[in-house]
Task: inverse folding
């Protein structure tokens, strides 16, 4: 965390330079349960064996957008 993320002296590349450039993954034409089509913005769901996701404000009746908020770790002992 930066005290002032907008200060170029504190964060020379800007606060976005701390973000992983490969963090955006878009998966198109996924199959989901029909009940998800009525999801409200910011509703949360657990997708089996993947993680927790929330409905993005960019979602529409024709296109659902989910943001992963928590990744489920795999059990290394399995």
Result:
């Amino acid at each position: 965390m930066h005290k002032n993320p907008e200060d170029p002296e504190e964060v020379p590349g800007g606060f976005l330079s701390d973000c992983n450039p490969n963090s955006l993954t878009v998966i198109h034409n996924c199959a989901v349960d029909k009940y998800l089509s009525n999801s409200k913005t910011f509703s949360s769901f657990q997708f089996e064996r993947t993680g927790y996701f929330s409905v993005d404000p960019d979602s529409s009746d024709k296109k659902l957008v989910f943001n992963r908020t928590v990744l489920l770790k795999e059990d290394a002992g399995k």
Remarks:
- The chain has no helices and three strands.
- The longest strand covers residues 66-71.
- The radius of gyration is 17 Å.
- The chain has one domain: 15-71.
